[in-house]
Prior knowledge:
Layout: H1 7-19, H2 24-35, H3 45-58, H4 64-67, H5 74-89, H6 96-103, H7 107-117, H8 135-152, E1 160-169, E2 200-207, E3 212-218, H9 224-239, E4 249-251, H10 261-270, E5 274-276, E6 281-282, H11 292-306, H12 313-325, H13 329-348
Parallel strand pairs: 1-4, 4-5, 5-6
Antiparallel strand pairs: 1-2, 2-3
Helix pairs in contact: 1-2, 5-7, 6-7, 8-13, 9-10, 11-12, 11-13
Amino acid sequence: MASHYTKEEKIEILQQYLLNKKSPSQTSRALRAIWNLPRGVAISRSVFANIYRNFRTFGSVLHPRSCTPTVRTPENIHRVQEAAQVHTEANRNAGSERIGLELGISKTSAWRILKKDLKFKPYHLKLLHKLHEDDFDRRVEFSELFLERDQADPSWKDNILWSDEAIFSLAETVNRHNCVYWDSQNPNRYVEADNLGAQKVMVWAGVSSTRKVGPIFFDQSITGATYLRILSEEILPVISQWEEFERLTFQQDGAPPHYAQTVRNFLDETFQEWIGRRGTIEWPARSPDLTPPDFFLWGYLKDRVFARSPRNIPELKEIIKEEFDTIPQDMVQKACRSVLNRCQVCIEIEGKQIKLHKG
Length: 359
């Protein structure tokens, strides 16, 4: 290949190529004599063709790419490092494309500097609920109560039915946050879906260390009335058959439909105690890091569901049911029992978000 030769050697090759009337065989013999090469050594015909083509096209034996000064200079490396730090500290997107545009270098060069010269790794921002001033104390109070109850009765935590709702949308058929495609150029991958983004379904589910219940689908917006109907007509008939029902502690977060007076009255009449907003045990607001559906169930289930690329709502519902039913109970149990450790961490970090302090 022509790239194996120095600039001076390429000039010599071009001169001999022209002197020998562009004959590769005669030029090879001439160069062997000049460079004192063994008789069996031959220079590829493509070498002559490439050097001659560069000379005719660019007026040089070198291709422009090989004679352009590298962008990865110490100065540019320092500029890229500063830009990345500024964006990171400001919680702004610090992608190689944005940095390249700001600094006047290509996206590829910026990426190479970040990856190869600076040894940086890309990370995604984590979205956290912003805590209010008194949320820290409420989270610590709940955590302390949870630990006290567990110390008094270690089986108590296994009889908590943790519940929640989540939206599953066909727009998530390709999980854009977790799926990354690498290629030499944009592969323009896509998945066809009916009315992308327009169709979604609200799903309720409950989990405990020993049981799963659901999924139950809401085909309309959730109100206190619709939530109460689901509780009394679909959830209660199932869980009331459980042998541990009398010892069951029902948990829900403080969403407005959950706080309806009719809902709270129903929970007061149905359970000896329940965890929630104004419940027997007060649930601390903005605490998804303490409830298994939020920190485990929905993420795991969505990854499984959207990996199967549902195309319409009926198919989406069917896949949700299948994947929910196949979640191993030992995995659910591990998540439910991990609330104890999370409460311990919550106390240690004075009620701050656990995600900020993992590891």
